[in-house]
Design goal:
This protein has helices at residues 2-13, 16-36, 41-46, 51-73, 76-82, 86-115, 136-164, 168-192, 196-199, 209-214, 216-223, 227-251. By secondary structure, the chain is an all-alpha fold. The longest helix is centred in the middle third of the chain and has 30 residues, at 86-115.
């Protein structure tokens, strides 16, 4: 297992996108700082300059290529040959993505500390009380921690799709379509009021977890679930998608 994890990190470190992504993240955070508004310093700090959306974008691309590129190039056969069993290969990829996810969130926090003092937004003290009567620094850290769960739910879904579809471009396209269009369609159906009690528990609704934490009033009206309910649903579907993805991967013929 340790050797499989080492292999995954070695491959990750030698991918250009691994080192380009932080620069892309910083550029998108700066763009958010200018577009959201000068007087929204508290919201920008809590959301680390809208980094949850940008990190999700990056992880979909990296997560999709983790499996599908190896399926296309048949390099997955080498990994399976060297590993003691298939769960080592599957789990090592998940561990690698999780660690990179943590890295991106920590990096977003570091970028936020620097961007707070840029002229793009009003200065707000870290101790300023904001959401849930908590200081701003606590809001920011909790938003990042919650977004780790939201993004790993998406990674689990991407892994599942990658095991179903071997083509890299198709996996990325379908993943973006499911994540972004799925949320829009789900929100529209829930707002229509029809079957809301059932539809509110669909997995795509759980992607609202991070957004609802930092903007509860707006997103509760869309999701129809409280923060705690979204949290439970996120962890449940993350486990289900992970298990389904592994079952498909285990039975897949190479």
């Amino acid at each position: 297992m340790a050797f499989s994890i080492y292999q995954e990190f070695y491959k990750l470190m030698h991918k250009k996108i691994t080192w380009i992504s932080p620069l892309i993240l910083l550029a998108l955070m700066i763009m958010s700082g200018y577009t959201i508004g000068f007087n929204e310093g508290r919201l920008l700090t809590m959301t680390s300059y809208n980094s949850p959306d940008w990190i999700m974008f990056i992880l979909v691309i990296i997560g999709a290529t983790t499996f599908s590129m190896e399926f296309q190039n048949n390099t997955i056969l080498t990994l399976l040959y060297k590993a003691s069993n298939k769960i080592d290969v599957y789990l090592s990829k998940y561990v690698m993505i999780f660690c990179y996810n943590v890295f991106l969130h920590v990096l977003a926090i570091i970028f936020t500390v620097g961007l707070r003092y840029a002229p793009m937004n009003a200065q707000v003290a870290w101790s300023t009380s904001y959401r849930y009567q908590q200081p701003l620094w606590e809001n920011m850290l909790k938003t990042s921690a919650i977004d780790l769960l939201t993004t790993m739910l998406i990674v689990s879904l991407v892994f599942l799709l990658s095991c179903l579809i071997n083509n890299n471009a198709i996996v990325i396209s379908v993943s973006f379509l499911v994540v972004f269009m799925g949320q829009f369609v789900t929100g529209s159906l829930l707002n229509s009021g029809r079957f809301a009690n059932v539809l509110k528990w669909n997995p795509l609704n759980m992607i609202n977890l991070t957004r609802e934490y930092y903007n509860y009033i707006t997103y509760y009206a869309t999701s129809h679930l409280a923060n705690a309910q979204l949290l439970i649903g996120t962890m449940a579907y993350m486990t289900i998608f992970f298990a389904l993805g592994y079952l498909i991967f285990r039975k897949k013929r190479f």
